[in-house]
Amino acid sequence: MKVHAGRFLPPIEEIALEKSPVPPQIEFCSVTKMYGTVAAVKELSLSVSRGEFLTILGPSGSGKTTALMLLAGFAAPSEGDILIAGKSVAAVPSYRRDQGIVFQSYALFPHLTVRRNLEFPLEMRGMKAAGRAAKVDRMLERVHLSELGGRMPSQLSGGQQQRVALARALIADPPILLLDEPLGALDRNLREQMQGEIKSLHKEFGKTTICVTHDQEEALTLSDRIVVMRDGRIEQIDTPEALYDRPATSFVATFLGEANILENPGFKIETDVAQPSGTVVMIRPECICIAAQTAPKGAQAGQRQSVTGMVEDMIYAGPLRKYHVRVESSVLIVREHVPSGQQIFEPGDEVQLDWLRSDIRLVPA
Ligand SMILES: Nc1ncnc2c1ncn2[C@@H]1O[C@H](COP(=O)(O)OP(=O)(O)OP(=O)(O)O)[C@@H](O)[C@H]1O
Ligand SMILES: [Mg+2]
Questions:
Q1: Nearest ligand to the C-alpha atom of residue 64
Q2: Contact predicate 220/180, CB 8 Å
Q3: What's phi and psi for 33, nearest 5 deg?
Q4: How far is the CA of 181 from the centre of ligand 2 (A)?
Q5: How many A from CA of 181 to the centre of ligand 1?
Q6: Are residues 80 and 36 both part of a single domain?
Q7: Which tens digit of pLDDT belongs to each residue from 173-208?
Q8: Ligand 1 atom closest to 212 (CA)
Q9: In the chain, how many domains are there?
Q10: 20 lines ligand 1 (CB under 6 A)
Q11: In terms of Cα–Cα distance, which of 179, 165, 234 is closest to 208?
Q12: Which of 251, 269, 292 represents a domain boundary (last residue)?
């Protein structure tokens, strides 16, 4: 870079790049998919950058798999277009789209050994046997399955099958990786372990990844951005932090994490700004503090609202306690970590709840 008259000037190549920016790796341009009269996906517009990890999150039937199938070329849009690296793929068959895919069920070839499963994508691309063997060895080692290459899929545990499915999707080095509920069949511990594995594979291989899930924790853990879908449409796209902290709708607020949505709470909720019509008050359970009624007012008293209520229910959840507390006509969910020695409240206890006014969100209903 040159310094000119006290300013840094970018080199010529960078100026050229600025003028013709790299197109997004994947673009959905107002894509609709009809199945008879059902619109599985409606006017979906979405861009995914090279190397990004994007998660599609949404309830069952919201169109997540359909969106992925359209991108993979297993279904064609009824309207709209899909671009990869700036070019329409309308006329490109699925086997030429160069994408690694892990389907909703692992779908390993049951009659082929682990090795042969991994060799298959390479064989399809015309790679010679010696090259294939070396690549399969490296990949088996990478996913910690070197010992199991000779086994059939039915002789593997769920987690091992999932590793093979991921390895098979990655082995031919496709620029795009599509994962549909890749960890859906695994128990919680294994899921968490495999989430770590997916994260580290993404870091290492840098593939543009679209991952479908209905597990919010998984979405928050893995993604650069999350798309929340509802009834075939995008409800919100944002970073995990922004979605959680500033949900655009009450649907997003309740779908991503737990939320107290207070429509007619029966008591005045103090807000820093006037509440626009058509919005509801939302506060996250972990933003509410619970204390004995006689507890002295804590710090920041001027910025907090305090109400009294009665515990209706206490749910034990390992290091967390979840309380349901009645305040006038509302029942608020309160969640807190309980260090040993801290007071635990029981149903029937009168308590004081308080929260920072700045933790109140006003979201469209
Ligand atoms: N081949 C098909 N024929 C008819 N309707 C379909 C077909 N595939 C999907 N649908 C419908 O389209 C809608 C979206 O389905 P999709 O499989 O995309 O949902 P999803 O978000 O992946 O759900 P899940 O979380 O249960 O996997 C549903 O109403 C579904 O019944
Ligand atoms: Mg699905």
A1: 1
A2: no
A3: -125, 115
A4: 7
A5: 14
A6: yes
A7: 899 999 999 888 777 888 888 898 899 989 998 999
A8: 22
A9: 2
A10: no
A11: 179
A12: 251
